[in-house]
Input
Amino acid sequence: MANLTRPTPSHPHSDIELRWPASVLWRDGDPAVRSITTADVWQSLREGIDDFRAMPTHVVFACIIYPVVGIILARLIFGYELLHLIYPMAAGFALLGPFIAIGLYELSRRREQGLDVSPARALDVLHRPGIDSIFTLGAFLALLFVGWLYVANMMYTQIIGGTPTSLSDFVNQVMTTDKGRQLMFAGNLVGFLFALFVLAISVVSFPLLVDRDVGVGAAIRTSVRATLENPIPVALWGLIVAVGLVLGALPFLFGLAIVLPILGHATWHLYRKLVVTSP
Output
């Protein structure tokens, strides 16, 4: 297959030349990507924290998270049929995060331009030209989330089988038996592959679609190119997201009301560093 050579516009970090398979990772009109460093990732996180301080939205996220926690607790009280899916559901939340944060990208975009940044302005994302593409890509992530739960359920059924009769029974099965350790290894490995795929296709695709209407295909290609061009910085970002979600989820998901907005705003700033601004 022929290669297409595209020069990357000048950037303070480096001047490089990108070569991508023409029909796979680059098409005429696709946004150009930059090479960044891990320092840019940490800077994006700091800028995300600064955005959160200027535009606190933790109350909004708390209103969304608390009912979810209530449903989970109620389910645990009245039955254990879905107990083995609680961890996959919590871990799989990262698959939906890039779509859930679209309102935060809009707020960061507006703050960047000096516009009104009241929390209600997050809904202005629904009027962005690329909203149809955003929902299309969001639906794809939702399908991946359902697919992950299906795979997680299948692994539990095949390796351990049956339904736990109590929370202690479930913990003992997973933590103290050979089958439980096999399940943890296989589950975390497969979950990592799901997360890696989503990270590659979404690290910049959603903020790009909030910023410009380039279409789903171009957004995904740009995100994959940014990942391949910056494997270590993007891997660091994925680790930051994973650790942040774990820490936020520990106190019955309540910490996510702070973690999610910070990560959402930081994702916008990471996008700004990875993708060349449209003329």
